[in-house]
Amino acid sequence: MEVLVPAFLLAALAQLGDRPALLTAVLADRFERRLTVALAAGLAHGMGSVLAALGGAAVAPLLTPEAQSLLLAVALVAGGVTGLWRPAPANRYERWRFGSFGTPLLAVFVLALGEQTQFFAFALAASGEAWFAAAGATLGALAVAVAAAMLGEAGWARVPLRALRLGAAAIFLVAGIVIGLGALRLTG
């Protein structure tokens, strides 16, 4: 249960300036069914988080506690580095005709596959609490998806995403460095 809140916070911070949230806002405007689109996006994130958590649980027995901490540090530093630049605009998936639930479910799943939220879930799951890591990451991404869907594309564009993305990147970098130094026993 220790990883539930960190997974939630990491996922929410990572998703704020990322492409899946913008795509959720775009699709919510397109289909005009905001809650349906948000729930589909949340389910897509949930599927990705479960896959990541299963991977983390698979490698957990192979890792020492120091290696688990180092894996989390690498995930945080990687998330921080990727957060320093603006993500490319998301494809609007205008040709996809799977409805207000199917389109966001598939599009967000494809777009979010392998992004930093899943890397965080993988690293946290490797500490031995895979389902809590998946649940926390899913809930954090869902919270951002709901906000993006309710605001729509124009409202989401008014959120200071650049500042939030850079702030989250700084937090990830500092936390990753501190955890990494501790894992390598370079700090007291």
Automatic annotation (TrEMBL):
- The transmembrane residues are 38-60, 67-85, 105-124, 131-151, 163-184
Top-rank lineage group of the source organism: Bacteria
Q: How does it sit in the membrane?
A: Multi-pass membrane protein
Would you tell me the protein name for this molecule? GDT1 family protein
**Alphabetical keyword list:** Membrane, Transmembrane, Transmembrane helix
- Return the similarity comment: Belongs to the GDT1 family.
Q: Which organism is it from?
A: Sphingomonas agrestis
Could you confirm whether the keyword Transmembrane helix appears in this record? yes
- Cell membrane: present as a keyword of the record? no
Q: Which Pfam families match?
A: GDT1 (PF01169)
Compartments annotated for it: namely: Membrane
Which InterPro entries does the record match to this protein? Answer: GDT1-like
